[in-house]
Batch of 3 targets.
Target 1
Amino acid sequence: MAGQEGGLTGPDLAAGVAASDLAPGAKLLGHAFGDPVLLARVGDDYLAIGATCSHYGGPLAEGALDGDTVRCPWHHACFSLRNGEALRAPALSPVPCYRVERRGDQVVVAGKEERDALAPTWPAPLPSRDAPRRIVIVGAGAAGSAAAEMLRRCGFGGSVTVVDTEERSPYDRPNLSKDYLAGNAPPEWIPLRPDGFYAEHGITLVRARVARLDVSKKSLELEGHPALSYDALLLATGAEPIHLGLPGEDDPRVHYLRSLADSDGIIAAAREAKRAVVVGASFIGLEVAASLRTRGLSVDVVAPETLPLERILGKELGTFIKSLHEEKGVVFHLGRKPARIDKTAVALDDGTSLDADLVVIGVGVRPRLALAEQAGLAMERGVTVDEFLRTSAPDVYAAGDIARWPDPHTGQRTRVEHWVVAQRMGQTAARNMLGAKERFDFVPFFWSAHYDVSINYVGHAEQWDRVVVDGDASQRDVSVRFEQAGRTLALATIFRDDESLRVEMEMERAIRR
Ligand SMILES: Cc1cc2nc3c(=O)[nH]c(=O)nc-3n(C[C@H](O)[C@H](O)[C@H](O)COP(=O)(O)OP(=O)(O)OC[C@H]3O[C@@H](n4cnc5c(N)ncnc54)[C@H](O)[C@@H]3O)c2cc1C
Ligand code: FES
């Protein structure tokens, strides 16, 4: 029975479909036992997994098949079609996997396989014989939390200790400026895992600040907590907002946004406030502007550039983003800087005064490098790591916003501030601690959301000599390709998920040739 009932679409795969309906490399969305199921043909194999991405519920049937894997169209997670394993972040949990039987000329989804989220099913034969026994991770953000989980997914049986200053980490940091701040995501969506999850999987979370790292003794000093020794260490301390040091910046109406506590502080202030000034037209600044408009506040954005995000997304998308925010009522003060923050207003460098009972400063971040610097690790505007994410100290790895790695796609050492990159770095570092020797060669990916528009970006381009625009940003159907000497360095898209995935896969193939 084909059907739409209960939100299910396509054929009932438990009742069977004709094998000839699926050519090799084809996929079909259907349902089985009340759930959406993706059936795919890989060579002569028919494989079935849950059709809903375990990250934010993206439709895997609209994603891209790549061998025996499928990539999610929304934020490029990747799942094994053979066992449902989440092979690439941002998805951390597998999707269900189904038994498929051939009955005559019919292919039938015969039953669901049950398993634990961190069941050790990772394909590499890990851990190796000389794997460490005690692994410590500093930072329970994107990289640190993904690394800790990956150690268990690889079957690592030693101790895993994650140290973080924050009480509530790890949580979904990208959401803090988007749906959570806008009031569209309830608090229970924000933790990456439910209460008790880490303890259940033998991952110890220590709430303390790591004050000192001694790489010769392989030990860490913690504030208010006994020292920790390690056999292998991952540094994943992330980044912190840049402070402008303006007169009046220490006023309680002034906020920065990095942590869940910061986002909660802005939400509490927004309940009382009517007029907000956002300083900085960065991704975070503009996402905050969108969220505060959604809450009904008037929003002024002050920034020194003439077009928001032009340096990263080019003129076409910069113009679109600006007009999108203006349509929603945001007032820009471009080419301007704040001079000081007064009791009820923000004074600009041209003498303009903007009334404000809430001020959010989003002018960029800087990596938190103090620990790595104090330990004497090699640095280069970030912590220098090799292709296996090893730092200059034995058995010390670094990942996420602090790590500058040799990016094979650009041929340059690169450091980015992207959620998915940080998670994947954490996962690669974890496997390498266990002896995998995997190069970190993922194509960088990030997304940014403004109202109902999401921008996806694959690759990395700091400079380009040609921009190829296809489509129309104002129609929310566009791709912008950034090229250097005829090579695609990056692609930004709005509602062109197929193209974004295709270019990502082309970039991967280009370095594996
Ligand atoms: C509001 C917001 C929205 C964002 N949106 C997006 C987005 O849409 N897309 C995207 O790609 N990226 C986004 N990012 C960026 C993304 O969140 C970061 O790139 C990512 O979190 C970096 O991961 P990380 O593990 O390196 O650091 P973090 O996630 O910042 O984690 C670092 C952790 O280390 C802890 N720590 C630091 N120093 C110490 C110490 N000495 N001792 C103990 N603990 C310590 C911190 O408390 C923190 O919990 C956003 C960032 C913010 C703040
Ligand atoms: S919804 Fe699938 S990767 Fe985000």
Note: Confidence is low (pLDDT under 50) at residues 1-5.
Target 2
Amino acid sequence: MTRARTGAVMTSEDSASAAAHIPVMLEESLHGLNVRADGTYLDGTFGRGGHARALLARLGPSGRLLLLDRDPAAVAVARTEFGGDSRVAIRHGSFADLADWEMTQPGLDGVLLDLGVSSPQFDDSTRGFSFQGDAPLDMRMDQTHGESAAGFLARASETEIADVLWRFGEERHSRRIAKAIVERRREAPIARTGELAELIARTIGRRSDGKNPATRSFQALRIEVNHELDALHSGLQGALARLRPGGRLAVISFHSLEDRIVKHLIRAESQQPPALRHGLPPPPPVALRLTPVGPAQFPSSAEIAANPRARSAVLRVAERLA
Ligand SMILES: C[S@@+](CC[C@H](N)C(=O)[O-])C[C@H]1O[C@@H](n2cnc3c(N)ncnc32)[C@H](O)[C@@H]1O
């Protein structure tokens, strides 16, 4: 599997390699986790198991690997491949709730989050993530509940739609697109990806960089429909709550909005608050520190050449302090 990332733009070059399975920054992220053979690790974004498989290979008989994915199809793959391994526990759900999973309560030595959607999700024509082709406009990673992209576009006000396109897609034509959507839905609901892609292309014309004019809007709708940034906030808090002293957090993100959240959390938790005035209780201790591998890592040019979808990846690693 290769993957489509929050901010990665899918091109024909990418889709040519879509059938392959290429986990992004595999060695760097496992190195960052500092995997101990007897440790307990959580992969909150199983996908098709590229990272999980490599992590499990580094664990001994007393190691534990907890696997989560919000997509039932990914969980089914995890159960088929790892269900018989007594070191592995698997759960369907969002990493936003990782601290509620009783398996995490004894504490974790590492948490890996590899954000975005997977290629199987992106390339499955029934899921509605791609503007290429024509499919129901769904975009939910977990189709068992929540509102689809079509539902959002049918319900939201013009201002709400424009805000989403601007905030999550940095689409500078957000207002024009939102207006066109609201005008169109007066005639009939927008139910299919092809319809939406065509409407956007007709409204804003070609992009100067040659990319599909619907790229930014589709990305924005996906982030909105899956509440991706809220989930990331909660997942990071959950990881902080469950990491043991010395435990590592490794997050691979592909979009500046996600990376900013990760960077700010690490920075905020790594800094000692200013000293309070005499007589007041001492400030809470610092929870995280940056590891010696530095604040951010990027894929090598060789990895990007082999897997163009890796090109926007950013890996950040932090260690829980006592
Ligand atoms: C980029 S893929 C992960 C690929 C995986 N590391 C591999 O090597 O196969 C991202 C996966 O995370 C899942 N995902 C995204 N947000 C999630 C969340 N909040 N909770 C759980 N899973 C999530 C998606 O359903 C998708 O399967």
Note: Residues 1-20 have pLDDT under 50 and may be disordered.
Target 3
Amino acid sequence: MSGSADRDKGENPAEETTVEEKAAPEVSEKMIPVYVMGRRYEVPEGLTIMKAMEYAGYKFIRGCGCRGGICGACSTVYRKPGDYHLYVGLACQTVAEPDMYLTQIPFYPANRANYNFEELKPAPEEIFKLYPEVFRCVACNSCTKVCPMDVQVMDVIAAIKKGDIAKAATLSFDCIQCGLCASRCMGELPQYHIAQLARRLYGSRIAPRADHLEEAAEAVRQGKYNEMLRELMGTGIEDLKILYQEREIEPEMAGEDWQPAEKGYL
Ligand code: SF4
Ligand code: SF4
Ligand code: FES
């Protein structure tokens, strides 16, 4: 993220068109003041914090990925006038409000243990060894309160302390690794790294194997789809588009027993 020199010169940064800005929806003509790192800017009402900062002339070269609330790169911290609360959110998802004081924390330093995953056993002791600070949790629940994905972060840590890797993995499934939980932890835990290790162990070593997946993998190994793939690779782009548009789509309300008309590749 960097401040634009054009803005400093008083030029209108909205004229710096990019592909994304051209595609952006209409915004309100009403302008509101926001403060970015202490400096006041007038931005159109209704923009997300990320868009408001871009309108103000900042360019995100870091701290911005998906723009859709998924990558966790755009953690933002803000206060509102006359309100002692320190708010957090994702800049690409949170709408700017008048007189918001905001700044970005696209990276929050948090200890990430080094390990050779292949050597780890699916046992809680492995997590305790790599992250002994897990026992520094004082159950204050601050992490849960700041999580933009509503992950029950404190419960994730509690599950790990009890040795329930499966529960920790399931509870933390929606984590987007934004790091906001770590920014508030008085036990100084890197909760999201710990939870990620739990998910890796669960997904790789604990979750039951799906028989049908193994069967499908074996069919691939046996070359069941080779001919179809060769045919597709020899098809021109326009015909591929038609094939894609005319493909049979599973109905939204399809039952468990739904099958496509073409069953040759099942
Ligand atoms: S658990 Fe932590 S890192 Fe994951 S989404 Fe919530 S606040 Fe972000
Ligand atoms: S913020 Fe830290 S100390 Fe508080 S509940 Fe979460 S992990 Fe535990
Ligand atoms: S840019 Fe990816 S979550 Fe905001």
Note: Residues 191-206 form the longest helix (16 residues).
